[in-house]
Every structure is written in C-alpha cells, then in structure tokens.
Amino acid sequence: MDIRGYRRSDGRIGVRNHVLVFPVSYEMNQIAQSIVRQVPEAVTFRNQHGTDQSGDDLTQTLRVYNGFVTHPNVYGVVILSWGHEPYDLQALANAAVAAGKAVELITLRASGGMRQAVQKGVNAATQFVKDSASVLQEPVPLADVILGTECGGSDACSGISANPALGVVTDILVSHGGISILSETTELIGAEHLLAKRAVSKEVGDKLLYIVDRIEKNAMKMGVDIRGAQPAPGNIAGGITTIEEKSLGCIHKAGSAPIQEVIEYGERPTKHGLVVMDTPGHDIEQLTGMVAGGAQVVIFTTGRGTPTGSSIVPVIKVATNTVTFDKMNDNIDINAGTIIDGNETVVEVGGRLFDFMLDVLNGHQTKAEKLGHREFGIYRIGASF
Amino acid sequence: MHPADNVATALDSLTAGTEIQRNESIQSVTLKSNIPFGHKFALVAIRKGSPIHKYGEVIGEATVDVAAGEHVHVHNVDSLRGRGDLHKEEPNE
C-alpha cells in the first residue's frame, strides 16, 4: 500500500515538510521564538536541555538532537547555538546535511548579538520555507512508516477501548510491513512476562525483561512507592489502582505481533514490525524519544484528554471514553468510547483509526497540529551539573 | 474481563444496592457503595493478602478483607511492584 509523502535523499520517507528552528539549549529559546513569530510557517519548541549535562546523559540528549535534525518530516533546519556548548555542533549540522536537509548553523556570539542572530535566523527560515514548496509529495510505501504508540492520562477504559483499537492499527500496519513502536517501560511493569513471550528470540525477550527490571530498580533505589507517579493521580481518579493494572491495559496498544527488537531511548529501529523502545511513562519524554527514533506519526490514546503534541510529527489523539471526547473535543481527533457505549466494536474503531491515520499521513492536520502543540522533553538519566 | 477475575469494571456510574447479574452459572453481586465510572468492585469476597485478578492477571493484593460488591481501589489494594518504600534500607544507628 502507498501513501503520499516526501522522499528524502537518505531514503527515508517524510509525511510533513517542516522547517525546524532548533534551539540547542534553553539560552536559545527566546531567539527561536522570535524567529518563528516572524516566520510562522516554521516550527520550533522550547528546550530545557543541552547545557550542564555530561556522560551518558549528554550522549542521550545528543542522540535526540541528531534524531530531530535528520528527521524525515523535516525539510530544513536552522540550528541555534550560543557558542559555549561542550559538544560539536558542526557535527550535528553535518549529520543534517548528510540526511539531505537544508541547514543553517547560527552562533549567537559569532553573530554579534541577539538582534543579528534573530535576523540571520529569519532570513534562513524564510528561504527554507520558500524552497520547501518545490518539494512535492509522491507515492511512497506505507512499509516505510514508523508509528509511535502512546497512552497518556490513562483511565480504566484505556485497556478496554482505545488501546485495543490502537492494537488493531499496529497489527494492520505491521501486516503492511510498517513499524510500530511500543514504549513507556514503566507501564510494562507487571505485564513484561506476557510481552517477553512474544519476542522473536530469547535475546530480545531477555532485553525486554532487563529494561523493565532496570526501571523498577531505579524506583526501588529512590525508596518510594511509585504509586502517585505511576499510576498518576489522574489515572487513579479514572479507576486505575496499581501500576500492574495500568500496564496490562497499556500493552494492548501493541496488538498481537511478535516483538522484533528492543531499542534504547531515541534510537532508530533496525527491524520492521513491532519494536519496543525504552522510555519512561512521562508523556513528553516518551513522545520526544519516539520522534527522535524516526516515528513520522504518533497515535496517543487518552482517558483524561492529555493536551500535548510534537513540533515535527502529527499526533493523533484518541479518547478512551465518550465523556472525555465531548469535554475535550478541541483536542481529540477520534472517539474510541463508542466501544464502551456498545455502539462499535474494537475492530471497527481500529479500522476507523487506521483510515484516519492514512488521511493524516497524506497531509490531514491533527487537532494537536492545528492547536500548535510543540512539546519537547528528553528522558534524563543523570543529574544536571 | 476474564473468567478468572475477582473484580469487574463499572462501564457506567453505579449506585449502591444495584444488583449486578454476572451470568446464568455464577451468582449475582449487590453493590455495597456507589461505584464511579471506570472503577472496580469485588465479584466475590477477597481475603486480606489475596491477589486481585483483572485481565486474568495479578494487579495487586488486598490489604484488608474485601466483601463481594465492595469498591476495590487504592484504599484496599496495594501494588506489588515498584515498591521501593518496602525495601528502603534502614539507616545505620
């Protein structure tokens, strides 16, 4: 099956053609905001990372940066730096060039100040927006699509309605040769034994058990009951009592396909089919990790109506119940609450959701895109210094 | 959700005293309190320390004796996972 997308020179497939203004640290956020105010066709986000990090933690941040500037939904990128970063920004720019992007690297100190840096950024972004219009959509294979799956603000309906419907979408996409990412390692606690049985090999199953054990040990090390963080207060209000219960509902997103591989946060899948990425349950850190891993589209099921989105990837919101669909209608694209109401089956909603995903891949804007949601956050594995 | 489950999920807000019919072979349950939409109630009496089953899997254990028809939630169920609070090292004297 084909969709209409943008074929990039590195062989990857984009479903959007964004000009991304990329602040590499929080010091650059104001400049980035000033640029997109003047070039509203460009996108940006607020970054809280990129300085005072070290070791594995910094490596993880740079992996995410690399994933964003080379992302197939991006046509061109304006990289904004201060000039004091303890890492090689030219290497980041080179990676974007190698992926076929139009690239401008702007350094504040070398630009002679804030106003000059903004002007340079406006000039570059304006040119990239103009040039991006000459890249046309063409038929591209659905098999090259990576779907990120996410559930946020889960309630007791998540595991009965929206997540099983998303599982249907995962199974259809995988049957067409595409990739679906299951993540939220915290929300695999208590369900990992079921998933490990679906791994294609003992090694893959063992890695899955390892990442779940690692995140549970981290909670143990803090000496806390993770209840309150997982399940979160909104989950508990919705009727979810324990992390085990949340997890057993969560994994329905993954359908029934075998698990091909387990990858680290922000890594690109190397196999087609269902893959597991190690992320926290934190909605934005999870979303950012999957986008960095190359997901061109995300389907986000929500019981409580979580209002979030990504700067460069369309996020499809699916309500688990009709009450939330009605209350949060500005934010929600699809209602899976019809399953709870007894008006539709899981398979029917899954089919409807798959068709809607095809529309979105072909260019239809999601509500999160129309509302300008551009959240960004990286999973921290070390302290700030 | 599963034949082995000892709790069920309310797909509507249910009021105390409502009789919930399971099926022909299993006895019905009368709700002891109001059950909010999405929340769980016990299908059978569950002894303190016994596992709570939903989706046919263990989702925690009862912290007190729970009667059939009672609301089952954070006040009478504990998670068995991610419990660093139970494994906290005692500070040395």
Automatic annotation (TrEMBL), chain A:
Keywords: Hydrolase, Lyase. Residues 143-383 form the D-galactarate/Altronate dehydratase C-terminal domain. Pfam families: GD_AH_C (PF20629), GD_AH_second (PF04295). Residues 5-131 form the D-galactarate/Altronate dehydratase second domain. Transmembrane segments: none annotated. Belongs to the UxaA family. This is Carbohydrate hydrolase. It comes from Alicyclobacillus ferrooxydans. The lineage of its organism: Bacteria, Bacillati, Bacillota, Bacilli, Bacillales.
TrEMBL record, chain B:
Residues 5-78 form the SAF domain. Keywords: Lyase. InterPro entries: SAF (IPR013974), SAF_UxaA/GarD (IPR044144), UxaA_altronate/galactarate_dh (IPR052172). This is SAF domain-containing protein. One of its GO terms (molecular function) is lyase activity. It comes from the Bacteria. GO terms for biological process: D-galacturonate catabolic process. It holds the Pfam family SAF.
